[in-house]
């Protein structure tokens, strides 16, 4: 059964569980932070697509007091969880605008310095991926960047076995790792790394390159 991100139980356990599912989860976010710090101006406006429970928002708010954020998520339960976290850790949420919906709900006149879509696009059905990235591109300023991070299609069946074994080493039980592989068939829509690069280029990004790879998880840096 596909995971229900509207479920309060799923959302409440998300932050702990994701670190067992995604090898190097926190290192990826350190890379993201370093890239944003390098490329963004002092008063940046950042779009976070699929804000989840607010992990990205929390560390970026703390480290960049002059940045503002628009956070989008189709799960109202996730947005409420993020708001609870930020109220606890930061109090002042005037620099964050939450949007309940997908990328089609983004304001027409929005212009962002950067966008993050971390562990989001692999849930987007194949025919809709182009529209997903086109919506993000439309909202970016010239030379603004998109950072994405997703699971890519495996070229050999043993790659999934390696991923399963690694996830067991970082905290999943055998049963949980088997369920993880089942979910890949149920609610993931995977493309290869080369297909992702081609898709981002076709949408209209001028520069597309890989900033991170761990097994079949790839991070793409794309610039408008």
TrEMBL record:
GO terms for molecular function: methyltransferase activity. Keywords: Methyltransferase, Transferase. SUPFAM superfamilies: S-adenosyl-L-methionine-dependent methyltransferases (SSF53335). CDD domains: AdoMet_MTases (cd02440). The keyword Methyltransferase applies. Residues 46-142 form the Methyltransferase domain. GO terms for biological process: methylation. Pfam families: Methyltransf_25. The keyword Methyltransferase applies. Coiled coil: none annotated. This is Methyltransferase domain-containing protein. It comes from Acinetobacter johnsonii.
């Amino acid at each position: 059964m596909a995971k229900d991100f509207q479920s309060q139980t799923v959302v409440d356990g998300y932050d702990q569980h994701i670190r067992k599912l995604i090898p190097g989860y926190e290192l990826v976010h350190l890379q993201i932070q370093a890239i944003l710090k390098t490329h963004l101006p002092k008063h940046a406006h950042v779009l976070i697509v699929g804000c989840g429970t607010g992990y990205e928002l929390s560390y970026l708010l703390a480290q960049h007091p002059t940045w503002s954020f628009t956070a989008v998520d189709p799960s109202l339960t996730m947005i409420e969880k993020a708001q609870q976290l930020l109220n606890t850790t930061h109090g002042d949420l005037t620099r964050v605008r939450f949007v309940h919906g997908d990328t089609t709900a983004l304001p027409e006149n929005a212009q962002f310095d950067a966008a993050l879509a971390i562990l989001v696009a692999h849930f987007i059905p194949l025919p809709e991926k182009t529209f997903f990235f086109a919506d993000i591109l439309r909202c970016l300023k010239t030379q603004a960047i998109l950072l994405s991070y997703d699971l890519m299609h495996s070229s050999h069946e043993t790659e999934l076995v390696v991923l399963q074994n690694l996830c067991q080493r970082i905290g999943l039980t055998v049963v949980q790792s088997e369920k993880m592989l089942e979910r890949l068939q149920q609610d993931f829509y995977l493309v290869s790394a080369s297909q992702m690069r081609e898709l981002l280029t076709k949408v209209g990004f001028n520069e597309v390159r890989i900033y991170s790879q761990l097994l079949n998880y790839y991070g793409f840096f794309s610039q408008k």
